[in-house]
């Protein structure tokens, strides 16, 4: 039984005063609109900030909780799998930043494109990717989303317009502007969210691509996920001007609290409208990652443990939504805990299933190099074995 | 020496004819060579005229076979210059498929720095012929991103050397995305531009990027050398689902040739038989083809019978055509414009040695450009690249 009400501060826990609650409460799936205010203001640059009052619904809030909990669980499971040496190479985890993936999805459709960097597991999930596909890919199995040939940094989902998954810092920005160009060319009324980090914000190709996007009025939204550290270097040590949303100069920008899923949703909605009419806009999401840059980085040499635990206590995105759910009486403590247990089981099942998937066979080494692999003969390293004559 | 060879014996004959039994050529020397009469080459893709030819010992004025009218069977062709042929191919493809667009510096209103895209902006508009700012990395990346969604951009580097700035995009995103996405995304881009040595442009503007790009898995590289194959390769490259890099040469843009009126496409992976022969296989591509043909004139007058193949496809190599030729002649000379170290010739030498070692009577010789930055001074620039005299000497050496 959701109560539609305006809550002045999301930190306030105003419980309903009088209602006698029935013995069995069903978790609310009400879709009638609730308006909640974001905790912080948006800071605009060359544009009007959107309002702090976000329209949402119980169902959406619950989906936020569920999706974020699932993402969190997935990343933690990936952490243990990496330590168990089932995942190799690089593994960049997104926990702490889930609000971004989830809030963005709430504001857009599957026709809008997303392209991001190597920290892509949760974005993949947000775009509709399956847990099993993700874990299989991480463990290098055939059933992975890229057939095991991409790895952690190369998740893609074409049918959901998710363009990946890119290892080289900043290289996805021109790609993203190219996708926006194609959307404009084909008159699709869709936008592209090109995500990059505070480290990539110093790449020249960003400014090159931004120039073209602004010149040609492309529906590109550049989202800077500012998690304060470019691997081990803090933003104040790498950028003369760490106000990334202003760096576009002639391109409008917006600074958003990236740990608040509702704020992210509002900003993305605003940005989509803006981009379809006026061309590119930069969104800076103030967010934080709990893990280090990747699994080989402990994450404690360049920041204090206090800082990390402070973030967990004060700004954790899942906790924030949990509090909102409780305060708006959309679900009880127990229901949410049950949900989390269910999700944990879901993730464990997916991991188990992925562990049993087969590895790709050796002929896969030579597939998908070319389309239709045009009449080539391709050799293995010793030129004697594993030779394939491609049709 | 660096003059453009106009309407050069750009023999694009694909015909075959009965040749002398190879047993007689085991020890080629002038006295043993049989007599040949003046031959007619009828160019046609499937002609198999069984003309038996014999070589005379006197001076042959027409040693380099001139291409007869290719469209003898279908009507008159039309004569045009190489850059016009490229433009024609591009225009036809843009007419045919609305997904094809062109992006590059000064391709639109200016008409292209070598006039390949002249008139296209007026015809197709600014959204299909895009003038980009000077940011190779970004606009190459944008072309690749657009290709991921299904567009077919033709990305022009004003000079191939500038594409070094886009190396990351070409290597990681263009070449590898089809693989790392498990086949989900195809990248049907064409990256083209002029490169090569000539016109005294200096070191940075005379680069041969085929040697740098040749290791990138997932791309195809082709080099055009005549108006006929320029148009054909351009069309094939645009229609191909794979990323193709089309190498043009700064000195070849004004070559004139008559090409067929009707539509045709050249095979991207096929090499071109320029001049069939018996004694030695000369493999070449792009501008060096003309130096080779010039040397061939001299060689024929001296009594040699070189087989000249324009390999056209730099990645992958057409080992089928090359192999058949090696099996026939048993001697190989590679003449290229790449640098000695790590060039196309180096890879081709390795490929031939590995695959056809048993058929070789002499080591594979590779003539390449010197490993130096291309100097500005005309005489020095000439000596950076392979000259016909060197080719003649090399053939004589190999055929001893």
UniProtKB/TrEMBL annotation, chain A:
GO molecular function term, any single one: pyruvate dehydrogenase (acetyl-transferring) activity
Alphabetical list of InterPro entries matching this protein: DH_E1, PDH_E1_Alpha_Subunit, Pyrv_DH_E1_asu_subgrp-y, THDP-binding
Cleavable signal peptide: none
Subunit structure: Tetramer of 2 alpha and 2 beta subunits.
Known cofactor(s): thiamine diphosphate
Stated role: The pyruvate dehydrogenase complex catalyzes the overall conversion of pyruvate to acetyl-CoA and CO(2). It contains multiple copies of three enzymatic components: pyruvate dehydrogenase (E1), dihydrolipoamide acetyltransferase (E2) and lipoamide dehydrogenase (E3).
Catalyses which reaction(s): N(6)-[(R)-lipoyl]-L-lysyl-[protein] + pyruvate + H(+) = N(6)-[(R)-S(8)-acetyldihydrolipoyl]-L-lysyl-[protein] + CO2
CDD domains named in the record: TPP_E1_PDC_ADC_BCADC
Gene Ontology biological-process annotations: pyruvate decarboxylation to acetyl-CoA
Gene3D superfamilies documented for this protein: 3.40.50.970
EC number from the UniProt entry: 1.2.4.1
Domain (Dehydrogenase E1 component): residue spans on this chain: 66-361
Keywords linked to the UniProt accession: Oxidoreductase, Pyruvate, Thiamine pyrophosphate
Top EC class of this enzyme: oxidoreductase
Top-level division of the source organism's lineage: Eukaryota
The protein, known as: Pyruvate dehydrogenase E1 component subunit alpha
Automatic annotation (TrEMBL), chain B:
GO molecular function, one term: pyruvate dehydrogenase (acetyl-transferring) activity
Compartment(s) of residence: Plastid, Chloroplast
Boundaries of every Transketolase-like pyrimidine-binding domain copy: 80-255
Keyword Transit peptide listed: yes
Catalytic activity: N(6)-[(R)-lipoyl]-L-lysyl-[protein] + pyruvate + H(+) = N(6)-[(R)-S(8)-acetyldihydrolipoyl]-L-lysyl-[protein] + CO2
Pfam family name, one: Transket_pyr
Tagged with keyword Repeat: no
GO cellular component: chloroplast
Gene3D superfamilies: 3.40.50.920, 3.40.50.970
SMART domains the UniProt entry points to: Transket_pyr
Keyword terms: Chloroplast, Metal-binding, Oxidoreductase, Plastid, Potassium, Pyruvate, Thiamine pyrophosphate, Transit peptide
Enzyme class: oxidoreductase
Cofactor(s) it depends on: thiamine diphosphate
InterPro entries per record: THDP-binding (IPR029061), Transketo_C/PFOR_II (IPR009014), Transketolase-like_Pyr-bd (IPR005475), Transketolase_C (IPR033248)
EC number(s) stated in the UniProt entry for this protein: 1.2.4.1
Function: The pyruvate dehydrogenase complex catalyzes the overall conversion of pyruvate to acetyl-CoA and CO(2). It contains multiple copies of three enzymatic components: pyruvate dehydrogenase (E1), dihydrolipoamide acetyltransferase (E2) and lipoamide dehydrogenase (E3).
Subunit relationships: Tetramer of 2 alpha and 2 beta subunits.
Protein name: pyruvate dehydrogenase (acetyl-transferring)
Organism in which the protein naturally occurs: Arabis alpina (Alpine rock-cress)
């Amino acid at each position: 039984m959701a109560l539609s009400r305006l809550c002045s501060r999301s930190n306030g826990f105003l419980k309903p005063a009088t209602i006698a609650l029935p013995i069995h409460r069903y978790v609310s799936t009400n879709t009638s609109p609730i308006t909640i205010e974001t905790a912080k203001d948006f800071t605009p640059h060359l544009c009007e900030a959107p309002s702090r009052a976000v329209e949402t619904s119980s169902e959406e809030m619950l989906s936020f909780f569920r999706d974020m909990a699932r993402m969190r669980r997935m990343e933690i499971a990936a952490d243990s799998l990496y330590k168990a040496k089932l995942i190799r190479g690089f593994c960049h985890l997104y926990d702490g930043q889930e609000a971004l993936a989830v809030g963005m999805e709430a504001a857009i459709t599957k026709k809008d494109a997303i392209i991001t960097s190597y920290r892509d597991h949760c974005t993949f999930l947000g775009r509709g990717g399956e847990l099993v596909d993700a874990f299989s890919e991480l463990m290098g199995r055939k059933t992975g989303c890229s057939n095991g040939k991409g790895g952690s940094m190369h998740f893609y989902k074409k049918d959901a317009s998710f363009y990946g998954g890119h290892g080289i810092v900043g290289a996805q920005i021109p790609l993203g502007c190219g996708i926006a160009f194609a959307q404009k060319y084909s008159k699709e009324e869709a936008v592209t969210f090109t995500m990059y980090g505070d480290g990539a914000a110093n790449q020249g190709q960003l400014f090159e691509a931004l120039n073209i996007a602004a010149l040609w009025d492309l529906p590109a939204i550049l989202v800077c996920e500012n998690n304060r550290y470019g691997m081990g270097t803090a933003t104040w040590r790498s950028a003369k001007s760490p106000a990334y949303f202003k760096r576009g100069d002639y391109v409008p920008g917006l600074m958003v609290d990236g740990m608040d899923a509702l704020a992210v949703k509002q900003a993305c909605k605003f940005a989509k409208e803006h981009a379809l009419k006026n061309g590119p806009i930069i969104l800076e999401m103030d967010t934080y990652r709990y893990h280090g840059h990747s699994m080989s980085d402990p994450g404690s040499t360049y920041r204090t443990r206090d800082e990390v635990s402070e973030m967990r206590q004060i700004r954790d995105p899942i906790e924030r939504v949990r509090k909102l759910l409780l305060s708006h009486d959309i679900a009880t403590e127990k229901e949410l805990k049950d949900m989390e247990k269910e999700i944990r089981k879901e993730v464990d099942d997916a991991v188990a299933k992925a562990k049993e998937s087969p590895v790709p066979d050796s002929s896969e080494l030579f597939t998908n190099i070319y389309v239709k692999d045009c009449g080539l003969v391709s050799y293995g390293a010793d030129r004697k074995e594993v030779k394939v004559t491609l049709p | 020496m660096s003059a453009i060879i106009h309407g050069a014996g750009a023999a694009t004959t694909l015909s075959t004819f009965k040749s002398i039994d190879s047993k007689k050529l085991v020890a080629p020397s002038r006295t043993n060579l049989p007599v040949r009469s003046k031959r007619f080459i009828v160019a046609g893709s499937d002609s198999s005229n069984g003309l038996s030819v014999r070589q005379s010992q006197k001076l042959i004025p027409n040693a380099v076979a001139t291409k007869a009218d290719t469209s003898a069977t279908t009507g008159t062709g039309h004569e045009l210059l190489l850059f016009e042929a490229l433009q024609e191919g591009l225009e036809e493809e843009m007419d045919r498929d609305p997904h094809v667009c062109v992006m590059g510096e000064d391709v639109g209103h200016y008409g292209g720095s070598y006039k390949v895209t002249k008139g296209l902006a007026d015809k197709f508009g600014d959204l299909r012929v895009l003038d980009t700012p000077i940011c190779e990395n970004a606009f190459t990346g944008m072309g690749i991103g657009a290709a991921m969604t299904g567009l077919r951009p033709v990305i022009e580097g004003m000079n191939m050397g500038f594409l070094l700035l886009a190396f990351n995009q070409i290597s990681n995103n263009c070449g590898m995305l089809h693989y790392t996405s498990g086949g989900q995304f195809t990248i049907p881009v064409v990256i083209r531009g002029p490169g090569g040595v000539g016109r005294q442009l200096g070191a940075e503007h005379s680069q041969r990027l085929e040697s740098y790009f040749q290791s990138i898995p997932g791309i195809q590289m082709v080099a055009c050398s005549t108006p006929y194959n320029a148009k054909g390769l351009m069309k094939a490259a645009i229609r191909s689902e794979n990323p193709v890099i089309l190498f043009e040469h700064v000195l070849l843009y004004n070559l004139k040739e008559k090409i067929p009126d009707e539509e045709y496409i050249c095979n991207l992976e096929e090499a071109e038989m320029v001049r069939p022969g018996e004694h030695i296989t000369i493999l070449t591509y792009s501008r060096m083809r003309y130096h080779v043909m010039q040397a061939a004139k001299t060689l024929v007058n001296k009594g040699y019978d070189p087989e000249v193949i324009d390999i056209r496809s730099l990645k992958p190599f057409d080992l089928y055509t090359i192999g058949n030729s090696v099996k026939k002649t048993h001697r190989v000379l590679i003449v290229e414009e790449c640098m000695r170290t790590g060039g196309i010739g180096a890879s081709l030498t390795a490929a031939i040695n590995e695959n056809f070692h048993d058929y070789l009577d002499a080591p594979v010789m590779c003539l390449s450009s010197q490993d130096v930055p291309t100097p500005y001074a005309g005489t020095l620039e000439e000596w950076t690249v392979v000259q016909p005299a060197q080719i003649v000497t090399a053939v004589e050496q190999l055929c001893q």
